[in-house]
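Journal club side-thread
Mid-discussion, someone asked how the predicted structure for our own chain would compare to the paper's figures. Pasting it here so we can look after the session.
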Amino acid sequence: MLSSFLPFRILRLLFATFCAGLIAHCACAEVITEGPKDMIGVGVDEKRGDTIPLDLAFRDHHGRPVTLAKYFHGERPVLLSLNYSDCPMLCQRQLTGLVTALQEMPWDMGDEYDVVTISIDPREQPARAKLTHKRYTQDYARPGTADGWHFLVGDSEDIEALADAVGFRYNFVEETGEYAHTAVLMVMTPDGVISRYLYGVMYDPGTVRLSMVEAGDGKVGSAMDQIFLTCFVYDHTKGRYGPQAFGIMRLGAGATVLVLGLSLAPYWLRRRRRKTQQAAPQES
């Protein structure tokens, strides 16, 4: 029995190792065209600006039938991920990394934003998704926020339709019964438009926040966040926001005008007062 079990364990370990290497390989939008056969076609074909089909039907972790329209109601941005509960390594690392980033943000899940995680495994049942929901919401550890993270399961047709809509390419590996896929987080607008893709298993809290401010179109974030976005632009090669010269120059020019105006205002007031006083005797 041990001799038959050991090769399977080794096969799973090798598969998990390939998935870990895939994270580094897919640091940007890219679909694998060379390598192990199970990895061919895996990756992301970015579709920023597209709207996902909100009529796709799933079941939440309570077993209730829902459509995606339930979570894209125009009020707040959504972080969307495609994972599955029985993933041996990659999904766990990605969701743990996401929790770590969200814990460092001042916003509360369910108030300023929602998280929707959909299983790519049509075999997964709501009871299994409920356990996964419990694990990560407990890790998040903010009272009253558990309803802001939604774990959904569904049929193959709806899962594949959503994956195609966001450009998420994955393969089912029959030898292990697992899925070859990459780790990516989609930042969605409140109306279901794909705004940005964030790759990897660790996320910079500032990048996640600014991505949601950008996707929220003024519905979340402070005035300072909006100002910050005028000076910084998302750098796809680095996976974070970096300064853009034009934005900084524009903000600097505006600040210069404001400072000069405030500095010269007393001079203009004194000059106007002096002219008024000089004109008064002539009128009398």
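Post-session note: The radius of gyration is 26 Å.
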